[in-house]
Structure formats: structure tokens, C-alpha cells
Amino acid sequence: MERRNRQDLFSFATPYVAVAPDCSNGIFLDSGGMSADYSNSETITYTLMPYMPGNAVSVNFTAFSTENIGATACYDGLTIHNGADASAPTMDLPGGGTIWCWDEDDTVPGGTGDLEGMTITSTDASGALTFVFTSDGSATREGWEAIVTCATLSTADFDNSLAFTYYPNPVNDNLVIKAQKDIESISVYNMLGQELQRSTPNSINADVHMSSLQTGAYFVKITIGNATETIRVIKK
């Protein structure tokens, strides 16, 4: 499958991946495409911009493999920015750090964070996501494949106090929540409605520790100011 190339849809000069006007499934691939590895010594910035104003890009990774340095660092990796360029805030790893890598060629796959199965959605007013990929001078991997879709992002979504980003989902250990204003409280409930844990971060960033929870689905209720929203999270 060839990567879509719709230059007529965009006015900015940085590398990008086109999103179809009807927001039907687009494909986001590394430079090697569907059948080859990415290359050595790459530094590429991909900006995914929705065609229609008021839409937001979502990226669902169906495969991800880049060269790691053990479990804590990367030879090759992706940095994800919530916005239209690399100056936008980063979507950091649950354990800290900004560069995502996961090496499927290891005997036991590992790295700083596995994007496969994750969906990243922009909460920026532009509706865009920016990915910066870097690789060192030796050894390459298969890279990534992802499905790109769009959803309506109303003015209220990015202007009100409740706008926030959360990831990863599914989650192994920590769920990361990043908001525009201080998060007053976070509660985790099982499917029976029983509250399992509660925290009061009073910060724009918070980690929800879920490693002790059993595999399954949970509801996470987030309160920011006078507004509350509940999200559904899958614990691996």
C-alpha cells in the first residue's frame, strides 16, 4: 500500500502525512513504507493536520519497532507533540522521558514505550499532531504502521478547562494525564462502580498508578475546576 500524498491539501512546508478530506482511514508509515525498514541517520518531522478546521487527528498504531538501548533509552525513536509543530508540548512516556522506542528484534522485546495498540488524539486547537523521528548511523528496524482518522473537535473542547490528553490506552503500569488547568481529583472505578483509588494531584500533569489492578476495563473520572469527565481505560 502506498503512502498517500495529497500536497494540494496543505500549505506548510514540513514533511507531513496527508489526511483524506472525509477523514476516512489514512495510513501513517515510517520512511520505509509497508515493506522496508526506515533508514540510518534520519531526522524527519511529520505533521498530521486535519483537512477540515474543527477536526482533530487520531493516530492508532498497529505496529511499532525501533532500535532501543535496553529498556531505558533509544538509538532510534519518536517524539510526539500535541500540536502543529515540534514546539508544541510533548506527549511523554508514562515512566518519564520524551522518546518512544520498542525493539521487537530483541529476544525479549523492550524499550522506553510500546506504541502498538495505542491511539493518540490531538487536543490542540489546530487538531494536529507532530511526530519527530530520529535514527542513529547503524542498524534499522521495521518502524511503524498506523491508521489516521479525524473526529470533530469543537471550540469548547480546546477552550474550556476540561481539555486534557491521556495515554497510553491500553495501559500496563501508569496512565498519564496532561491538562490545560490543574487536575483537582482522579478516581478509578471498576465496572461495578466501586471506587478503587483516588488522588488529588492539583497539577496540570498526573500519573495514575494502575500496575496493581487486574487485567480488564476501568472507568477513570477526572475533575478539573467545576467540570468532570469519565474515560474508559483498558488495563493489560
Report the CATH topology name of the largest domain.
Jelly Rolls
| CATH architectural grouping of the largest domain | Sandwich
Q: What summary fits the major beta sheet?
A: 4 strands, antiparallel
The radius of gyration computed from the alpha-carbon positions, rounded to a whole number of angstroms, is: 18 Å
Query: Runs with pLDDT <50, length 5+?
Result: 1-16, 154-161
- Form type: globular
Series of secondary-structure elements, N-terminal to C-terminal: EEEEEEEEEEHEEEEEEE
Describe the protein:
There is one protein chain. Strands 1-10-3-8 form a four-stranded antiparallel sheet, with no helix packed on it. It has one helix spanning 155-159; strands at residues 26-29, 43-48, 55-65, 68-69, 73-74, 77-81, 99-100, 119-121, 129-134, 143-152, 164-167, 174-183, 185-189, 195-199, 203-209, 216-224, 227-235. The chain has two domains: 7-154, Spermadhesin, CUB domain (Jelly Rolls); 160-235, Sandwich (Immunoglobulin-like). The protein has one helix and 17 strands. Residues 1-16 and 154-161 have low confidence and may be disordered. 2% of the residues lie in helices and 42% in strands. It is an all-beta fold and 236 residues long.
Give a quick summary of the entry.
This protein is mainly β and 236 residues long. It has one helix at residues 155-159; strands spanning 26-29, 43-48, 55-65, 68-69, 73-74, 77-81, 99-100, 119-121, 129-134, 143-152, 164-167, 174-183, 185-189, 195-199, 203-209, 216-224, 227-235. The chain folds into two domains: 7-154, Spermadhesin, CUB domain (Jelly Rolls, Sandwich); 160-235, Sandwich (Immunoglobulin-like).
